[in-house]
Structures are given as C-alpha cells and as structure tokens.
Amino acid sequence: MAVVFIGGGVAALQEAGVIDATAVRFVSLPLLGIHPTAEGLGLQALALVLIAGGLWANRRKAARTPGWRSCPLCGANRGGAGICMGPAHAASLDARRPSSWSWHPPGP
C-alpha cells in the first residue's frame, strides 16, 4: 500500500506543478499508483528497498533473539509464546486448553 500511496501522491504533486515531472518509458497503471515518471518510480523503488531491508533485518534479528520459538503445531516462527494461533490450529489449541479457562454463562 505504501508504494501505491507514494505513486499517487507524487502524481498529484506533479499535476499541481509542485514538483517536476520527468517522463520515462514505462507502463502506466494508475490503479496501482504506477505512473511513468522518474520521480515517482524512483521514490517507489526506494520504498520497496526500505521495506525489503526492514523485513530482512527483522527476520535476522528474530533468528538471533533468545526466546523466539517455532510453533509446536506447524513449525512457523511466531516468537514469544511459540504458538501460531492460526485458525487451522483452533481445534488443537482447544484440546490443549486447561478446563479452568472455559467460560460458562452465569446461572439463573
């Protein structure tokens, strides 16, 4: 979504004449925020690099952080509690939940 917002914002600023528009040969997909200008495409590429770098750094940090465990049910690395909590695990988690956690409506 960030890439779409950047493309739309840069295009709007270019239409208003606030920033220059340098046309380049590239596809135009306005619905996805892709407009064929060097300024817009450059900022979108920068955003993609920053997002990819952040994801890479986060995964690297998670792999080195003590206490991060894999989900015992599916093996996904979810950190903290080590339980995935995905909808596919609902039955398994309900079976492992202590009976003291169950909710009972108040009686009459």
How would you characterize this protein structure?
This protein has 108 residues and is mainly alpha-helical. 44% of the residues lie in helices and 0% in strands.
Instruction: List low-confidence stretches.
Output: none
Give, in order, the helices and strands: HHH
Give the amount of beta strand, in percent. under 5%
Rounded Rg: 24 Å
Q: What is the typical, i.e. mean, pLDDT? A: 77
Q: How many beta-strand elements? A: 0
Give the overall form: elongated
Helical/strand content category: mainly alpha
Distance between the termini: 51 Å
Number of helices: 3
* Biggest pleated-sheet summary: none
Helix content: 40-55%
Write the layout of secondary structure elements.
Elements (H helix, E strand, L loop, with lengths): L1 H14 L22 H27 L25 H7 L12
Helix pairs in contact: 1-2
How would you summarize this macromolecular structure in one to three sentences?
With 108 residues, the chain is mainly alpha-helical. The chain is built from three helices and no strands.
